[in-house]
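Changelog entry: the Peptidoglycan binding-like domain-containing protein record was regenerated in this release. Current contents:
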Amino acid sequence: MVNTPLANRPILLRGDGINYLDLREPVRLLQDLLKRAGALPASELSDGRFGPATEAAVKRFQSQNGLIADGVVGRDTWTVLERVNPNQPPRRQAVLRLLDGISYPDLQSQVKTLQDLLKQAGVLAASELSDGKFGLITEAAVRRFQASKGLIVDGIVGQQTWSLLWNGPVEAYFPYSTLINQFNLDRIVASIPYPDMHPFARQAIPLILRECDAGRVTDRGQIAYIFATAEHESRLGQWMEEFASGWDYEGRRDLGNTQAGDGPRYKGRGYVQITGRLNYTDWSRRLGIDLVGSPQRAAEPPIAARILVVGMRDGTFTGYKLSDYISGTRRNFPSARRIVNGLDRASLIAAIAEEYYRVLQTP
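Regenerated structure tokens:
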């Protein structure tokens, strides 16, 4: 096997070694490493041609080891290939939570592993399908397991939960952490002029950044406006359910409130305060969670963060979306209020967004 220093390894993808003959030796090395890891059958020829079989093996290896399964062999894939021990199961697992594998299919293989381990631990029924979708049944099983082991019962599968499930050391990682690492959380929180909001901001901002990262929302102006909207609507999680009773929404057909009690049942919740049976039904469909039957779940921070980011990105609230007003050097913060609620308090929210943008631009 050719011993090429990791720093000199090229990025490889399908067609290399076929269209670009100078890459045949790196592709042969890749194929040998995939065989050692058990991702490529030993009977396959290491011919230095990155074809469909090699690509499928790469995706299989990436999926099994918590990498993005895109079939492209970059530095992260090379690194894990180098250190893999074919005699032991993978021990690098993503931090998982409710909705993973549903909204983000890249995590389905990780969730399947979780579900299989929960079955082995006796907290998830053997009859349940290991479908790679982290729904309410999987979350309940995680909570049962955490309670049985004396862990914090939060339904989030992190380092300790994974280690006890595997009964051995596990390297846990955040699957969407690029944006979080780019920004200084302390600086963002310190820029908020209300000290009583700071504890809520410390929880909300990483969650929102994670959803921005997962949803490919990387424009700093858009991120700033998302923060500003969450601050205005819910004080970044301090008010996750509106104070009013909701009876003012009773009978509002434009909100889908057609049944007795719909007004208070579907009053505003979450970082962006979604309101009305129509919105709760729409987000139940989008997220695969029954928010119609359990509307209070819209106030749970991980769910609320996904609704906030995806809703503003895709224009689900009013038909207007972030890119209609904010992209690159174009930052029409005042008009962007239409994404959520007409032009109500548009100037105030625009000023908040400008401050967030200034902080996000600071090295």
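The mean pLDDT is 89.
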